[in-house]
Amino acid sequence: MSDCNRECIERFAGYCKALANSNRLRVYLQVVAHCGRGTAWELEEGNDGCTAGEVGEALGIAPSTLSYNLRDLQQAGLITLHRQGKHVACWARSEPLAEIAPLLVRDPAFLNG
Question: Domains of the chain: which residue ranges?
């Protein structure tokens, strides 16, 4: 296995760790489904995402719990958070989704370098 693949697997393990908590997984799936996906560059082109408050309302999660879970997802590199005045906008990052897909479908080329 090449060093790049080891690095990718380490990142994948970090994603899995962040998503291992059922509340964080619910939050992440809500962000993916309703807040948009993309890179920071794409987001500057007009995709406003949605606010953390909207995510919390949709899931019935207390603001303090939501804040904790969003922070963990951001630290894992799965989402982007951006303060906009009193609100925090959030988006799912595209790169982790693209990186995870080959592992989930057992792409032999990915594992063999």
Answer: 3-105
CATH architecture for residues 3-105: Orthogonal Bundle (1.10)
CA distance 98 to 80: 16
52: nearest Cα among 61, 43, 44? 61
Q: Rounded CA gap, 55 and 90, in Å?
A: 9
Higher per-residue pLDDT: 90 or 107: 90
DSSP structural state of residue 90: E
The answer, as to whether pTM is greater than 0.85, is: no
pLDDT tens by residue, 11-26: 888 999 999 999 999 9
- The alpha-carbon radius of gyration of the chain (Å, integer) is 15
SS3 81: strand
Asked if 78 and 34 count as a contact pair (C-beta separation under 8 A), the reply is no
Cβ-based burial of 52 (10 A; exposed 0-12, middle 13-18, buried ≥19): buried
Q: Quick one: tokens of 80?
A: 């982007």
